[in-house]
Design goal:
Layout lengths: L2 H14 L6 H11 L6 H22 L1 H13 L4 H22 L1 H6 L5 H19 L10 H13 L7 H11 L4 H11 L1 H13 L10 H28 L2 H21 L1
Helix pairs in contact: 1-2, 1-3, 1-12, 2-7, 3-11, 3-12, 4-5, 5-8, 7-9, 7-13, 8-9, 9-10
Length: 264
């Protein structure tokens, strides 16, 4: 994978991570149309590194909230901060189990499966359209809600299903306030990304990869910087804009991907 390809992928990841349009799906489409010949393990590694970069940008933007979560876990008092921290941990369990038990199967999805990406983008569009019709409330995330949202996050491992789109849509359909849903969605993924990158380091995933350190580093930098800008500028858009706008976009890109694979 060339430096230019890494830059393009980094920018795509940074721009799409915070919008409900599936950053992993867009990465797979970009890899395919750039003619990337990376094996599934290398393709998955680049995806993980880019997600790590945007997770780090999330840490920078939401540093106060993350400190509250850590503080809540350390207090061991049944207060609001501790309960919110437990909900974050609870929401991580389904995706963590799927990642551990089905790692090889997941890697196979990140090898230019454009038909799968297109189909899952249609699913994302449908979810966003349903959520857009839900009524606004002031309801907070409950423990049961956290578990259900966690299952949505686990399903969103599939490229094409937007993680933020799936978790925010599920939250809204459960009657949770949209701003609280967005905040919970962005915070719940951070520990998982850090856990995944730590697992890859300990298993020497980087050492066996054919992708150069320079490409990984450049992709990381561009995803991080773009992610900072996108999170700052677009977080308000995610919270306040109608989800149907993103739904239409997902339908268009998903349908285009499916049509392309049928005639290619």
């Amino acid at each position: 994978m060339s430096i230019i390809e890494a830059i393009i992928l980094g920018i795509i990841q940074g721009l799409t991570e915070f919008l409900p349009v599936s950053s992993s799906g867009h990465l797979e489409l970009a890899k395919y149309f750039m003619g990337s010949d990376a094996i599934p393990e290398d393709s998955m590694l680049m995806t993980v590194v880019l997600h790590f970069a945007t997770a780090l940008s999330t840490v920078v933007i939401f540093r106060k909230e993350l400190l509250e979560i850590l503080k809540g876990l350390m207090q061991f008092k049944w207060n609001e901060e501790f309960q919110f921290s437990i909900k974050i941990v609870l929401s991580m369990i389904p995706a963590a189990l799927v990642g551990v038990l089905f790692n090889d199967e997941i890697e196979s999805f990140f090898s230019g499966e454009i038909l799968l990406v297109g189909s899952m983008l249609l699913v994302t569009g449908a979810l966003l359209l349903l959520a857009d019709r839900a009524k606004n409330t002031t309801k907070k995330v409950s423990f049961l809600n956290a578990g259900i949202i966690g299952v949505s996050q686990a399903i969103a491992i599939l490229p094409g299903i937007s993680r933020s789109g799936a978790t925010i849509s599920t939250s809204v359909l459960l009657g949770i306030d949209r701003e609280k849903a967005a905040r919970f969605s962005f915070l719940m993924v951070v520990p998982l990304i850090f856990g995944k990158i730590a697992k890859d380091v300990m298993s020497d995933e980087f050492g066996t990869s054919s992708i150069s350190t320079a490409s990984l580093s450049v992709g990381f930098i561009f995803a991080f910087v773009t992610g900072l800008l996108a999170c700052t500028l677009m977080i308000k858009l995610v919270k306040n804009s109608k989800l149907s706008y993103f739904s239409i976009y997902c339908f268009i890109i998903g349908a285009a991907a499916i049509i392309y694979t049928s005639i290619a």
